[in-house]
Amino acid sequence: xxxxxxLGRIAIVLLSIFVVMSGYGVxxxxxxxxxxxxxxxxxxxxxxxxxxxxxxxxxxxxxxxLLFAIVWxxxxxxxxxxxxxxxxxxGFALMQIMTGLANSLFMLYLARxxxxxxxxxxxxxxxxxLSDITGSKQRKKILAWSGVAVSxxxxxxxxxxxxxxxxxxxxxxxxxxFLLNKFSIPFLAIALLGIIALVVVxxxxxxxxxxxxKTRQKRLKISGMLANPVFLRLLVLSLVLQLAITLFxxxxxxxxxxxxxxxxxxxxxxxxLCGLIMAVLQPLFASFDEHILPIKGQLITxxxxxxxxxxxxxxxxxxxxxxxxxxxxxxxxxxxTPNLIASISFIDANNTGTYLSTQTSVNSIGQVLxxxxxxxxxxxxxxxxFLIIGFLLLLxxxxxxxxxxxxxxxx
Length: 411
Known about the structure:
The protein is mostly helical and 411 residues long. It has one domain: Growth Hormone, Chain: A (Up-down Bundle). 75% of the residues lie in helices and 2% in strands. It contains 16 helices and 2 strands. It has helices at 3-27, 31-42, 50-79, 82-100, 105-119, 122-132, 136-164, 184-204, 212-216, 222-226, 229-258, 264-286, 295-312, 319-345, 352-378, 384-396; strands at 172-175, 178-181. A two-stranded antiparallel sheet has the order 1-2. Strand 1 (172-175) and strand 2 form a beta hairpin. Helix 1 packs antiparallel against helix 8 (184-204) and helix 13 runs antiparallel to helix 16 (384-396). Mean pLDDT is 79; it is low at 213-217.
């Protein structure tokens, strides 16, 4: 494979990741307002229960990712990556259309469930694809660019959701069981991006030259994977980080509305800033000389920064200090993410998809628990979610014991 062809394949895969994460991000600044409108419109949801629906709607999507991501990863190891990426993008576009046209909370729940089942294949299978076509020396840098695509989606999604939802267009058209109005616009725009990405993948992406039949003879059981103590610790680190990120994303949108009195545009700006910092810094930290600061040291530094920022965040109310804590939090996450993905990808070259999809499923546990736990704790006090998860991040660095050895190549 020539360099031009490899770069083309990498660009297509990164486009798929970017689009899916844009769809995840587009809902974040809009969800509190969108859920409130649908709930009050139905007349069956009390005002005090709306925040619980926000938490459930945020977590139900990753819950179904949790159930299906490992299945898609194993299938991609056996039959190839392209088909699973195509399936995921199709499910993603379907979810966005259904979300944009929802006229009830039931339809919104249904869209999130279907999207979680189908689109859960895209990110782990895409990362496995990138691992297939890169060598040990390139992999950490390329997977960092996967993190850039994720962060860029987190930037673009809230911007699209926050600003398109504020459009001055005034229309309210019923289409059978669907409803088309100004809240539909951001989701239909993201659905269009998903369809474009789907066509690009179908026409321009080829499966990597990998002997999938041989891989079928080396299928792993989950129990065998979890018997690896290094992999188990890496999964715990992934879980805690994702729990922190998702809790922050969910609680911040409500906290900013209730306490900071932000509108959707300013909430979207906060998410955009977080994603921008991660997009810029992940490739930088992926290129960091491991002789100066080994991977384990980088992980410890990242967890300390995220813990510090969340612990201080609720003590500050001015825009400058709120933004400063978001920057520190995003910097810590930018250090952690590429190091975790690369370390897991080196464990077993024949089952990369299975290992990375297992990490995605574990991340989904954090995505499920984060919104539910965050909104539950928020009911006791607006500051408590940030303080508790900050303390948990601080404790997590103890998992990185001196005896933990992390592979930095496939050799």
